[in-house]
Design a protein that fits this description.
This protein is mostly helical and 178 residues long. The longest helix is centred in the middle third of the chain and has 146 residues.
Length: 178
């Protein structure tokens, strides 16, 4: 069933006008929404970038904390090494003092040995002069031996030596001596 309600004559145009106004407001809201969406995207992008920077800074802070702990350990190690070096230095100084005393004693012994060395050098020079004389004599003998060897070689290479070889062989075979 349908009820016919009489409509006031200005209601339809008013409704149309309100509908148009509502559509305009919807369009304004959509424009505002689009502007806010762009701002929201920018804000989300900036927020993501801020999160990346925060993560990077946290990683840097953790790295710096590890480096700080490592440097502190290195510092403690260096202090220990300094202590050991100081003790070693004191021992070395004591050894140096002992070595200086020993050195002075050895200097006295060295002076006596140097005097003996001077005497030995003089004896060595005399022996060197004798050696040079003996070498000269040996060189003269070597020259004479070389000369005799050349003479013997020339004799063995001669025709008469070769022709008389059978006589020398007979002499060796029969053992006749002169």
């Amino acid at each position: 069933m349908k009820f016919d309600v009489p409509e006031p004559p200005d209601l339809v145009p008013r409704l149309r006008q309100q509908l148009i106004l509502a559509q305009v407001r919807v369009m304004e809201v959509e424009d505002a929404r689009d502007a806010v969406a762009a701002q929201l995207a920018t804000a989300e992008h900036q927020l993501a970038r801020a999160q990346e920077l925060a993560d990077a800074k946290l990683d840097e802070a953790a790295h710096l904390e590890r480096m700080h702990a490592a440097l502190r350990a290195d510092c403690d190690h260096l202090r220990h090494q300094q202590h050991l070096a100081h003790e070693a230095l004191q021992q070395a100084r004591a050894q140096l003092a002992h070595a200086e005393t020993s050195w002075r004693n050895e200097q006295e012994v060295t002076t006596g040995l140097q005097l003996q060395l001077v005497a030995q050098n003089a004896a060595l020079r005399d022996l060197a002069a004798q050696r040079d004389a003996l070498l000269a004599e040996a060189a003269a003998r070597d020259a004479r031996i070389e000369e005799l060897n050349r003479h013997q070689h020339a004799m063995h290479a001669s025709r008469s030596w070769r022709w008389t070889a059978w006589l020398r062989a007979l002499e060796r075979a029969f053992g006749t001596k002169r």
